[in-house]
Model the fold of this input.
Amino acid sequence: MDRTPRDRDDEGRARSGRPRDGLGRPLPYGAEGVPRQPEGVVRTPAETVREAQALLDAGMPFHAHEVFEDAWKSGPAAERDLWQGLAQLAVGLTHAARGNAQGGARLLLRGAARISGQDDPYGIDVGGLVRWARALAERADEVTDAAAEAPRLLLP
Done:
């Protein structure tokens, strides 16, 4: 059996070195992909929301999820549900835009449930996001353009 060595990061953890497209799908080695989000970046909540919104607007919800993931891993435990829920919304949009309507809908609803009932922390429009996620889950099979479906994270 051919055992090709797995790509590893500087700490020795398995990590694919393949480039990725704007929706996070792996591309062949040598292809030009979208730059990856650096991992483990500690941002303020305002920086997190601003960077994630820019990525969502650019049609890169997979990358936005990585920004939210950094926030839940580096932030206070009391905010874990907020950042995890937002990450799930971004991944739900990612799956829907990739053509995985069922997986997308499931993650959109899971993320909506996780953030539901929070009191708009950091100006995040929780109620609007919950409504957006539930509506998008209903028509996840129609999603083809992640940028066109990107939610607004902050209250108007």
Notes: The mean pLDDT is 92.
